[in-house]
Design brief:
Shape of chain A: globular
Structural class of chain B: mainly alpha
Number of helices of chain A: 4
Distance between the termini of chain A: 77 Å
Number of strands of chain A: 31
Oligomer: heterodimer
Helix content of chain B: 55-70%
Distance between the termini of chain B: 106 Å
CATH topology of the largest domain in chain A: Neuraminidase
Strand order of the largest sheet of chain B: 3-2-4
Largest interface: A-B, 34 and 40 residues
Number of helices of chain B: 5
CATH superfamily of the largest domain in chain A: TolB, C-terminal domain
Number of strands of chain B: 4
């Protein structure tokens, strides 16, 4: 009787266990890679079609991020526009995990509605769907916003496609003397426009945190000065024009201060200027060269390049002042450091043998991982979402811009115009 | 009989002793009778009276003499008679005694004979009784023994039967157990095979975002149809990284349908699976 009861109990326990203790299976292999996605060509209006192609802009944005692997249009088995035309089997057959369909509708002269839907192919469901009103001028920006929405939905990170970059380009003129331009373009390099042009060098553009202003160094009139210029109005203000070097301005995260390099004390040191009061505070004081300051995202620290140890290395100091703390020890050249938006990494230029490459330093482990493959790569700048870095590289003796995903997998040159391009700076998020 | 004597030596000795004693007593008893002599006749004394008194006395004396003589004569006669009588008596007595003795002897002999016969009879009887008793005892014993044997055999048989039944039951139980074990092993083997197949299929379909940190992990609970079709994928422990979590959900969805066991017993176990996605270096 007891045995039977025990057996029954055991059996029921077993049943209970089997009913509640799920089978657990560990998945540890898999593979890493870009997510296969299909962006079907959007249906264009019959008349008055825009010159820009939304789906192509979205496709190249996602591809450039390194996180997505768009399916070539030629490989598509079907090209649905409406939801009822979607047959997920077509896309599963191609191992595509996500599908984007959409259309552009003309809404009067130069006005458009752009609709798109994002599907999870294997779950067979729509996960995103919007209609955006736009104009012919804004169509690229709208396309970038669509890419941002898709990116954020699928990766969880905010997209940085609808942002801009500032850079300096030198364009040879007919007279032989080049003209230097400070330009602002979309993050993909399109829509460039000069905000300053000069026959003298322009250097070190830096975005204000609100994305409305750029600080830069100009050598116009034969000496270096630091200017702050409003992008849209063109109004500018000279911030410093001390004797010697006025260089490397960079905005504090709250936008109230600018860190910069001045040599008015004899040799280059880091100073901090209050933007409103113009009050200047010397942060470093060393016989060696201290330059290229950058703020930590919380505004507590400033990293900079100093050769006080015999060759250029990265040091850190509290923004309120204090003792300098050396951060890099690997190699004989580490310079132009800046913080990632999450404050956990630094991107910098590091010398490997005879080559200068873009590196990514983990602030916890202090390991530096190389992201670029050029021989004279410079001026790395994080995208505001931290997923990509833009930098300048040499191509056939000409400076061009390249972007690399922070995992180093995708490195892509930006489509840019003629000229020797240098010193890119990625803008904050569009506001 | 010999065994009996042997076992009863004391009793035999006693019996022999008693018999000897008896014989002695009888013998001496006869002698005692022979020793009893007859008593002698007592002489009678005559008194003489003188005169008248003497005469009388003489007469009386004569008379007395005569008397005496007569009397003597009588007495002699009497004595003779008595003697004869005594002799006759003695003879008679002797004869009688002889007769008696003979009779006695005869009686004794008869008695002895009788006694012997009786003894013999008694012995025979006793022997018979003993034999009977022995026989009965033996019979009883045999019966008892037989009964005991029968009982023992019955018990043994019952025991054997019980044992056999027990063995049979045990064998049956063992068989069941073996079958269950075999089934369990089969199930386990199949379970492991299917688990491995599922793992492989999901692994193959897992494409995680480039640059995924090694320390991320995500747990999902997956409900499956009986045919292995993925009915529901729900995240029970997020990695905190949307892209990673999505890659996990997609891996399961892409692996749809998942391999399922053929054994119906196992299918139920596979309808609710927990996956732990954890990239290993």
């Amino acid at each position: 009787m007891l045995i039977k009861w025990v057996q029954t109990l055991g059996l029921s326990l077993l049943l209970m266990v089997s009913a509640h203790a799920d089978l657990t299976i560990e998945i540890t292999q898999g593979s890493e890679g870009a997510l296969p996605i299909a962006i079907v060509p959007f249906q264009q209006p019959v008349t008055g079609a825009p010159t820009q192609n939304v789906d192509q802009i979205v496709t190249s944005d996602l591809a450039r991020s390194g996180r997505f692997q768009p399916l070539p249009v030629a490989d598509m088995l079907s090209r649905p526009v409406q939801p009822n035309q979607v047959d997920f089997r077509d896309w599963r057959a191609l191992n595509v995990e996500n599908l984007v369909i959409g259309q552009v509708d003309a809404k009067g002269p130069g006005a458009f509605d752009v609709s798109f839907r994002l599907y999870d192919v294997y779950r067979g469901e729509q996960i995103l769907g919007y209609t955006l009103q736009t104009s012919a001028d804004e169509l690229r920006s709208t396309s970038h916003r669509i890419a941002d929405l898709i990116y954020e939905t699928l990766t969880g990170n905010k997209g940085a496609f609808d942002t801009r970059i500032a850079y300096v380009t030198s364009i040879a003129g007919q007279t032989g003397k080049p003209t230097i331009h400070l330009r602002v373009a979309d993050a993909d390099g399109y829509n460039p426009s000069s905000i300053v042009s000069s026959s003298d060098p322009i250097m070190s553009p830096s975005w204000s945190p609100d994305g409305q202003k750029i600080a830069y160094v100009s050598f116009e009139n034969g000496r270096s000065s630091i200017y702050v210029q409003e992008i849209y109005t063109g109004a500018r203000e000279k911030l410093t024009s001390f004797k010697g070097i006025n260089g490397a301005p960079v905005w504090s995260p709250d936008g109230t201060k600018i860190a910069l390099t001045l040599s008015k004390g004899g040799n280059p040191d880091i100073y901090i200027m209050d933007v409103r009061s113009k009050k200047l505070t010397q942060l470093t004081s060393h016989w060696a060269i201290d330059t290229e300051p950058a703020w930590s995202p919380d505004g507590r620290f400033i990293v900079y390049t100093s050769d006080r140890g015999g060759n250029p290395q990265i040091y850190r100091v509290e923004a309120d002042g204090g003792k300098a703390y050396r951060m890099t020890f690997e190699g004989k050249y580490n310079a132009k450091a800046s913080y990632s938006p999450d404050g956990k990494q630094l991107t910098l230029v590091t010398r490997v043998g005879e080559d200068y490459r873009i590196g990514l330093m983990d602030l916890r482990t202090r390991d530096i991982r190389l992201l670029s493959t050029g021989d004279l790569d410079e001026s790395p700048s994080f995208a505001p979402n931290g997923d990509m870095i833009i930098y300048a590289t040499r191509n056939k003796n000409r400076g061009v811009l390249a972007a690399v995903s922070t995992d180093g997998r995708v490195e892509q040159r930006l489509v840019l115009q003629a000229g020797d391009v240098r010193e890119p700076a990625w803008s904050p998020f569009h506001q | 009989m010999w065994e009996l004597i042997q076992t009863n030596q004391k009793a035999l000795g006693a019996a022999v002793g008693i018999h000897l004693l008896l014989l002695l007593v009888m013998f001496f008893g006869v002698n005692w009778t022979d020793d009893a002599k007859p008593l002698p006749a007592t002489p009678v004394v005559q008194a003489t009276v003188v005169d008248q008194a003497a005469l009388d006395k003489e007469v009386k004396k004569l008379k007395a003499a005569e008397d005496k003589k007569r009397k003597q004569k009588e007495a002699a006669e009497k004595k003779k008679k008595a003697e004869a009588k005594r002799k006759a008596e003695a003879e008679r007595k002797a004869a009688e005694k002889k007769k008696q003795e003979a009779a006695k002897k005869k009686r004794l002999a008869e008695e002895k004979k009788k006694k012997a016969a009786a003894e013999k009879k008694r012995l025979a009887e006793e022997k018979k009784q003993k034999a009977a008793a022995e026989k009965q005892r033996k019979a009883e014993e045999a019966a008892k023994k037989a009964a005991a044997e029968k009982k023992r055999q019955a018990e043994e048989a019952a025991l054997k039967k019980a044992e056999a039944e027990k063995k049979k039951a045990e064998a049956a139980a063992r068989q069941l157990e073996l079958e269950a074990q075999y089934q369990a092993e089969q199930d386990l083997t199949e379970k492991q095979l299917i688990m491995a197949a599922i793992q492989q299929k999901v692994d193959r379909n897992w494409l995680r975002p480039p640059g995924t940190p090694q320390n991320l992990s995500c747990e999902v609970r997956v409900r499956l149809g009986a045919n292995g079709s993925v009915l529901l994928v729900s995240i029970i422990k997020s990695s905190g990284d949307v892209g990673f979590d999505r890659s996990v959900e997609s891996a399961v969805s892409k692996a749809d349908p998942l391999p399922m066991p053929t054994s119906p017993r196992l299918v139920s176990q596979f309808r609710d699976i927990r996956f732990v996605f954890k990239p290993s270096s």
